[in-house]
Amino acid sequence: MSRSLNCFGVILLTLVLVIFSVHNLPARPHSLLRACYKKQSLPMESKVLRLSYHSSQNALYHDLEPWKVTHIATFGRVESGPFSFYQFDSSRTRRGKIISSRTQIESGRMYQQDDGETAIDPVTEAMYNEQWISIGRYSPQMLIYFTLNNAKNLVEVAGKRSVTYRFMLGKTKIELSVRRADTLLESITILSPHDLYGDVTTKFTYNNFATLSGIAVPRMIEASSINGKLIDTTTIESVIIINKPAPLFTIAPGYAFVPAQPKIPEIAIDNKDSHLHIIELKHTDDKVLAVEFKDFILLAEAPLNSANGDLIIRETRKLALMKPIKYFVFGHHHPHYLGGVRALVHDGATVLTTAPDADYVKYLIDAPHTLEPDSLQLDPKPLHLEMFADSTTVTDGEFVMKIYHIGEKSHHTKDYLVYYFPSEKILFEDDLVWIKTNAPITKAGELMRGLYGAIKDLRLDVTTIIQSWPVGTKYGVKTEIPFSDLEKSAEMK
């Protein structure tokens, strides 16, 4: 009897030890993500989900004022699996015309035909990575698969409601958040660098799941981008499972990404006189105006990004080595004129602007640039703003520069500035005059009529107009324009 009890005790103790050891075994790495993958993806490479959708999208274009949103309604279909993504997308223009685009991503290759184009677009690796991530606004299957199977240095962060999976793709940080309660994907968050806006967060949030043959499919996807400035919504109208579809494009043998072609800075200096110096940035197609006073420099325009801002500062130092850049002014808020503002602020320049643009300038200066640090990120400096309403004068007591706010008269933006030099009878503006180089003068459009009307209203004695954009001959237009040409064009009946 005692012998049997002893045996039973040994067996019981062994079972307890086994159960305890199993209970305390480490969980399989990324187990919740694996469960999510099984729940939301078709495991068979020969099958894909066909999704029909409509989407309400928003975009920032070169518009009348900062943060003005353009609404775009699109519709189309997506054929998506863990290994491939095909999309046929259409949108309706303001005139009612339907324009379409096609995208195909498969086996590390991408083919794309943009809106209304007939040629296949060349694709760089950076374009591929960007598009590959952005497809999460329609279907998360490829992103889940990649995270689980291909993401390097994947980090799992456990929370009460969800588990987050983090990894880097180049300079982009990606996070997938999976809910504990139902093992469904809650969101994908992408942090990526942007020349103008710095570290930009894009987030896809997945809602209203439906089940098809055991596969959970989100029927509503919200896309928040530019740090919440733009909100898009994609609604999945129908879902079916189909066999692997025929490719949208013929897969070419020996496929390779097109090498990225970085623009090499190409600069020319045109000294108009001892006060006015034109710095031509041929790689951005812009003219920058350096105005030299007795003891300081004013810079007008800084295109696209901080790197160009640094370049302009270096070129200005060559023109007037000992003179500080006291002021920076931009003709309007579009990136070709304001994009390099952070470099100028770091250099100590005071930004001259009108009140409506003040908050926008502050936003650009305060924006973190940790993913691609610029001089202001590495060595923060305070922003100095000087605002004016209709006009202001910059002078050293002898040489005079007048800055006028013509605003909506430009028919281009609400914040439009022009610069006038009475002694030279020169007016510098950004992009309003379009007169062909080797062709008869034709009737002016609204931009040219707006500038001409503003000059007349201000009673400015102008003989020459210098335009910032473009520099080269691509558009076949004059960028140093006799005022008589503008007058002739604007007064044509």
Concise synopsis of the structure shown:
The protein is α+β, with helices and mostly antiparallel strands and 493 residues long. It is built from eleven helices and 25 strands. The chain has helices at 2-23, 31-40, 125-134, 141-149, 306-319, 335-338, 341-346, 355-366, 375-378, 446-458, 483-490, and strands at residues 47-60, 69-80, 84-92, 98-106, 109-113, 155-158, 162-169, 172-179, 185-194, 198-212, 215-225, 230-243, 267-271, 276-281, 286-292, 297-300, 325-329, 350-354, 385-388, 391-395, 400-405, 417-421, 426-429, 464-467, 480-482.
List keywords for this structure.
493 residues, alpha+beta, twelve-stranded antiparallel sheet, seven-stranded mixed sheet, elongated
Give a verbal description of the structure.
The structure is a single chain. The chain is α+β, with helices and mostly antiparallel strands and 493 residues long. It has a twelve-stranded antiparallel β-sheet with strand order 5-4-3-2-1-12-11-10-9-8-7-6. It has a seven-stranded mixed β-sheet with strand order 13-14-15-16-17-18-19. Helix 2 packs antiparallel against helix 4. The chain is elongated. The N terminus is likely disordered.
Q: What is the element layout, followed by pairings?
A:
Blueprint: H1 2-23, H2 31-40, E1 47-60, E2 69-80, E3 84-92, E4 98-106, E5 109-113, H3 125-134, H4 141-149, E6 155-158, E7 162-169, E8 172-179, E9 185-194, E10 198-212, E11 215-225, E12 230-243, E13 267-271, E14 276-281, E15 286-292, E16 297-300, H5 306-319, E17 325-329, H6 335-338, H7 341-346, E18 350-354, H8 355-366, H9 375-378, E19 385-388, E20 391-395, E21 400-405, E22 417-421, E23 426-429, H10 446-458, E24 464-467, E25 480-482, H11 483-490
Parallel strand pairs: 16-17, 17-18, 18-19, 23-24
Antiparallel strand pairs: 1-2, 1-12, 2-3, 3-4, 4-5, 6-7, 7-8, 8-9, 9-10, 10-11, 11-12, 13-14, 14-15, 15-16, 20-21, 21-22, 22-23, 24-25
